[in-house]
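Practice problem 4.
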């Protein structure tokens, strides 16, 4: 298999962490999606990463599709529960974390436009969505050790990638560490795992 990714993409990081947790070998090809013609575009018409190219040449895209596929093909370190309700609960966490990321990424992209072309209202709107999502994550996490039940899962990976990217890029001045001690505690614990340490975002 081959993964098309970048070292700064939080969505690609989620896939890279899952690969590491499940001890799966996969070739990594770094991609700059800002280039008009980049390798992933051949496999994903949307031009987005990550893209996982399977051994038979089939491309998978969208991180949520890729991580579910990876979890299903190997019994090692299962990250999604078999029970449907439990599984949906973990995927709900993932959807929330990815939704916070979506808003935060949009806020940052807007801030990179020329100053006179930026919309302060748009940035504030996206930052507001991200902050509400972070507050919900902190509320549901509470004092628990893991996001769902008493076991490390894809929910924790998704939340960790979300927090790590916001910490890295700081879009809209979001201060999740100061505002949500529960998330800061959880992120500190996740950062000690080898898979998280090995995939820290890099400029």
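Answer key:
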């Amino acid at each position: 298999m081959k993964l098309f990714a970048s070292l700064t993409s939080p969505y690609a990081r989620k896939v890279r962490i899952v690969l590491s947790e499940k001890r799966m070998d996969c070739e990594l090809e770094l991609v700059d999606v800002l280039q008009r013609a980049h390798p992933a575009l051949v496999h994903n018409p949307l031009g987005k990463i990550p893209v996982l190219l399977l051994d038979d040449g089939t491309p998978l895209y969208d991180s949520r599709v890729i991580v579910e596929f990876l979890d299903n093909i190997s019994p090692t370190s299962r990250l999604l529960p078999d029970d449907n309700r439990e599984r949906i609960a973990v995927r709900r966490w993932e959807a929330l974390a990815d939704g916070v990321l979506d808003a935060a990424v949009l806020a940052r992209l807007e801030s990179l436009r020329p100053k006179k072309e930026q919309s302060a209202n748009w940035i504030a709107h996206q930052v507001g969505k991200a902050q509400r999502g972070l507050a919900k994550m902190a509320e549901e996490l509470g004092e628990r050790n893991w996001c769902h039940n008493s076991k490390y899962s894809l929910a924790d990976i998704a939340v960790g990638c979300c927090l790590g990217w916001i910490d890295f890029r700081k879009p809209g001045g979001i201060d999740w560490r100061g505002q949500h001690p529960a998330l800061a505690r959880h992120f500190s614990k996740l950062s000690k795992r080898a898979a998280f340490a090995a995939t820290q975002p890099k400029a």
